[in-house]
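Dear H.,

Thanks for agreeing to be a second pair of eyes. The structure we're designing against is below in C-alpha cell form, covering all 435 positions.
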C-alpha cells in the first residue's frame, strides 16, 4: 500500500482554494495544466539537444492540445505525428510544412483515413514501418524522402505491456529486412533519408541509456549501407517517475547523445543529424486530473477476499484510461489535507458500469488500496502526473462528454483551453445519409 504525499511541481496540485474555484466554474472532473511546469520540461529537453547536429521532436500523441503544441513550437521543438489528423492539428498550431529537414515527421504502422492525403498535400516526410507502406507511397505518387522505422529486436516501454521492440512488437521493419525495404524504396524512386527506431524508455533511466547506446551502435554498423541517410532518430522515451514524482538526472543522457552522434558521423563518413522524440517527459508532470468524491462505501471480508473502503469519484477510465489499460500508477492526494493526518487504505473507483473502472489497481489488475486521509463526500481528489496519455486517450464511452481542460498561465491566470463536451457534440456526427 502506497503512502500518498502531496509533493509535485504542479502549481495547483495542493492549492485547495484554487481547485475549488475552478470546480465551481467548470464542474468536475477537469484537467489542470501548468504552463510553468511545461516550460521547465521543454527547457530540460532543449538543454539535452543544445549541441550541433542534435534535434528533439515532440511525440504529440502524448498530448495534442493546441495550447501545448504552441509552447512546443515556440521552443523550436519539431513534431512526430502518427495520423493525418495529428499532422493537421500540428499545422493548425503553427508548425511549418514542406521544410527541409522536415519539421513534421509522419510515423504510422498503417496509412488510414486521410493519412496519405495529408502527407501529399503538406509535403510531410513519412516514417515507413512496413514494406507495404512503401508500396502505398509509390502508388500514391509520392516521390519525396522517407524514413525507415526499424525494429531492432529489443526494447520495451514504461511497462512490459508497451512492447516497442522485439519479436512480439508490431512496430517497424525487422532489422534484417531493412536493406530489402530500402531496395524496394529505391526502385519506387523514394530516397531513404532517415533511419528511425523506438526502443521505449523502459521504467528507469539506466535502462534507457543502455538501450539507446545499443541502438546507436547497431545503426552505426548499418549506416554505410544507406548512402543517402542524413539523420538517425533514436526514438522517444525519457522515463517519468510516476511514484515519487521526482526528476531523473539527464546529464548522462546528454553525454550519450553527443557520443552517439560522433559515432554515427564517423561510421557514415559525413554529418548525421541525431534526433530524439520524447512525448511523456514533456507533459506527464504538467497536468493533474481533479475529481470529486461523491460517496464512500464499504465491502466486508468473506471467503472470496478482504473487504475494502471505496471512495467513489466522478472521474473514470473515460477520463484517465492508463490505470485500467496498463495497471499504471498515478499518485493520488486529497488537496489541502495535512500530511500528519491519520491515514487508511482506500480504493478509488469511478462512475462507469465496468469493474475495471478503478484507479487503484496493480499491474496484475488486483485492487491496490492507497494510504489516504479519511475521504469524505464532497472532497476534491487529485490524480497526479496525468498529462501524458491522459486527455489524449479519453473517450466518450457511456456517452460521457470529455472533461474540460484548464491551463494555468505563468502570470497566474486560468484559461479554459477546451470545454466540457455535451450530448450535442456527440450527436453532431450522426446522420441518416443515403450512400
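And this is the sequence the design step returned. I haven't edited it by hand at all.
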Amino acid at each position: 500500500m502506497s503512502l500518498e504525499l502531496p509533493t509535485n511541481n504542479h502549481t495547483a496540485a495542493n492549492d485547495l482554494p484554487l481547485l475549488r474555484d475552478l470546480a465551481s466554474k467548470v464542474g468536475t472532473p477537469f484537467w489542470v495544466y501548468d504552463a510553468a511546469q511545461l516550460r521547465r520540461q521543454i527547457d530540460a529537453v532543449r538543454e539535452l539537444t543544445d549541441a550541433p547536429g542534435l534535434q528533439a521532436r515532440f511525440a504529440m500523441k502524448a498530448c495534442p492540445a493546441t495550447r501545448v503544441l504552441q509552447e512546443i513550437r515556440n521552443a523550436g521543438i519539431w513534431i512526430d505525428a502518427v495520423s493525418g489528423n495529428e499532422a493537421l492539428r500540428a499545422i493548425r498550431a503553427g508548425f511549418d510544412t514542406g521544410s527541409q529537414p522536415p519539421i513534421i515527421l509522419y510515423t504510422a504502422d498503417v496509412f488510414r483515413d486521410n493519412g496519405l492525403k495529408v502527407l501529399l498535400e503538406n509535403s510531410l516526410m513519412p516514417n515507413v514501418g512496413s514494406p507495404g507502406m512503401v508500396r502505398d507511397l509509390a502508388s500514391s505518387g509520392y516521390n519525396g524522402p522517407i524514413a525507415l522505422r526499424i525494429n531492432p529486436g529489443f526494447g520495451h516501454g514504461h511497462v512490459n505491456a508497451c512492447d516497442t521492440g522485439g519479436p512480439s512488437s508490431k512496430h517497424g521493419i525487422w532489422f534484417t529486412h531493412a536493406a530489402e525495404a530500402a531496395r524496394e524504396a529505391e526502385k519506387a524512386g523514394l530516397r531513404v533519408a532517415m533511419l528511425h527506431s523506438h526502443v521505449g524508455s523502459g521504467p528507469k533511466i539506466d535502462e534507457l541509456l543502455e538501450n539507446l547506446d545499443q541502438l546507436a551502435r547497431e545503426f552505426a554498423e548499418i549506416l554505410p549501407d544507406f548512402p543517402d541517410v542524413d539523420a538517425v532518430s533514436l526514438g522517444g522515451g525519457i522515463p517519468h517517475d510516476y511514484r515519487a514524482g521526482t526528476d531523473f538526472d539527464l546529464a548522462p543522457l546528454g553525454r550519450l547523445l553527443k557520443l552517439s552522434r560522433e559515432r554515427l558521423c564517423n561510421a557514415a563518413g559525413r554529418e548525421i543529424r541525431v534526433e530524439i522524440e520524447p512525448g511523456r517527459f514533456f507533459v506527464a508532470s504538467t497536468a493533474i486530473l481533479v475529481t470529486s468524491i461523491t460517496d464512500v462505501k464499504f465491502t466486508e471480508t468473506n471467503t472470496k477476499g478482504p473487504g475494502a473502503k471505496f471512495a467513489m469519484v466522478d472521474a473514470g477510465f473515460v477520463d484517465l484510461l492508463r490505470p485500467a489499460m496498463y495497471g499504471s500508477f498515478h499518485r493520488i492526494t486529497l488537496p489541502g489535507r495535512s500530511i500528519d493526518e491519520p491515514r487508511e487504505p482506500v480504493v478509488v473507483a469511478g462512475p462507469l458500469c465496468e469493474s475495471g473502472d478503478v484507479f487503484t489497481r496493480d499491474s496484475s489488475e488486483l485492487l491496490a488500496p492507497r494510504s489516504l486521509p479519511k475521504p469524505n463526500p464532497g472532497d476534491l481528489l487529485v490524480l497526479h502526473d496525468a498529462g501524458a496519455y491522459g486527455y489524449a486517450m479519453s473517450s466518450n464511452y457511456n456517452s460521457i462528454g470529455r472533461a474540460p481542460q484548464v491551463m494555468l498561465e505563468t502570470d497566474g491566470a486560468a484559461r479554459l483551453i477546451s470545454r466540457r463536451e455535451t450530448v450535442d457534440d456527440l450527436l453532431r456526427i450522426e446522420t441518416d445519409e443515403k450512400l
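Two observations from my side: The mean pLDDT is 91. The first helix runs from residue 16 to 26.

Warmly,
E.
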